[in-house]
Specification:
This protein is mostly beta strands. The chain has a single domain, classed as Neuraminidase. The chain is built from two helices and 25 strands. A five-stranded antiparallel β-sheet has the order 18-19-20-21-22, with no helix packed on it. Strands 1-25-24-23 form a four-stranded antiparallel β-sheet, with no helix packed on it. A hairpin with a 6-residue loop joins strand 24 and strand 25. Helix 1 packs antiparallel against helix 2. The longest helix is centred in the first third of the chain and has 22 residues.
Length: 331
């Protein structure tokens, strides 16, 4: 005689409803306003005078530079990276989610210091320079590794920004202004949204300094002359949600994170007079890396800032998980 089985449909319905609730909760979290941030946590490499983190990927791996030595920081361990031709210094400036690294090495060329970009995967270096440039510096990688951004110096000395689409081979340049003042492209996300900064000559006045976003698909460039209540903004990182990092004045630089589309901004660091704070990389979870530096000093002090979970949101999340666990135990 076969045993009589209890009906399982109510539990299945409960599980489905709970799963749907968690899905909606995740969606609401993704659409939430710009979060508050916990105070940045120091990231300092022992035995080095300075630590300058430049980027963080979605696995939480951080890359940067300490005293002219590139580093990868993962699992609490720093690993040094030096380009074999980098006679002066090596920087790691970007990291994709698959571990592909982008960096810049500095070398002596007839008494002049020049730079060249490189990609590093599986221990193999690949040089990446703009044809005809006297120097090329890479500054970031999109998380999927498709886009690489940076700057290049023309024969006349002007610095121009660029983004290279590694899939199509198309390079998009962001030229210097007519007087030769530089443009910099830094962050770029998987959707092809790039961010950076520019200097522009103003007749009879000081140069104008600002930030921009550039949609590579449409070519639409939007400029910003203030952000987070700060003048002279410079954007440096951008994630999948369009949140950007950067820094601005007046006076000493102050690090910020925000959403240019909504005008929401958060100042990440309150630093004493004479100290600059710079925000660079940001991942899709909103974690930001950057560093502080006293004016005129190379003793960079690295840090990591992460969003504060909203108590109400996480309480609902906990209830949802509890309900799901109860349904599983009843089964």
């Amino acid at each position: 005689m076969r045993p009589i089985l209890r009906p399982r449909r109510p539990i299945a319905v409960l599980r489905q409803a709970t799963t749907a609730t968690l899905t909606l909760l995740l969606a609401s979290m993704a659409a939430a306003a710009l979060p508050a941030y916990d105070p940045p946590v120091p990231l300092l490499r022992g035995g080095f005078a300075g630590t300058a983190p430049w980027d963080i990927n979605n696995a939480g791996t951080i890359v940067g530079e300490s005293d002219g030595v590139g580093f990868v920081y993962a699992g609490g361990v720093f690993t040094s990276v030096l380009h074999p031709l980098g006679s002066s210094a090596t920087q790691l400036n970007g990291i994709a989610d698959d571990g592909l690294l982008a960096g810049t090495y500095f070398f002596n060329d007839g008494g002049a210091t020049r730079t060249a970009g490189f990609l590093l995967a599986g221990g193999s270096f690949e040089t990446l320079v703009v044809p005809g440039a006297t120097s090329t510096a890479l500054r970031d990688l999109s998380p999927n590794g498709r886009y690489v951004s940076g700057t290049w110096v023309a024969a006349g000395g002007s610095t121009q920004g660029f983004v290279l689409d590694r899939l199509t081979g198309v390079r998009t340049d962001v030229p210097a202004d007519a007087s030769g003042l530089p443009s910099i492209v830094q962050g770029v996300n998987d959707a092809g949204l790039a961010v950076g900064s520019f200097l522009r000559a103003v007749p009879g006045g000081a140069p104008q300094q600002g930030a921009f976003t550039l949609d590579l698909a449409t070519g639409v460039r939007t400029e910003y002359l203030s952000a987070a209540g700060l003048e002279r903004p410079r954007f440096r990182g951008v994630n999948a949600d369009g949140l950007v990092t950067g820094f601005g004045g007046p006076g000493a630089n102050t690090a910020f994170v925000g959403n240019p589309a909504t005008g929401e901004w958060t100042v990440l660091r309150s630093v004493p007079a004479g100290t600059n704070s710079f925000a660079y990389g940001i991942n899709d979870a909103g974690a930001v890396v950057g560093y502080d530096a006293t004016t005129g000093s190379l003793a960079y002090r690295g840090w990591v800032a992460t969003p504060v979970p909203e108590p109400a949101t996480w309480a609902l999340w906990g209830l949802g998980l509890a309900a799901l666990g109860a349904a599983t135990r009843r089964r």
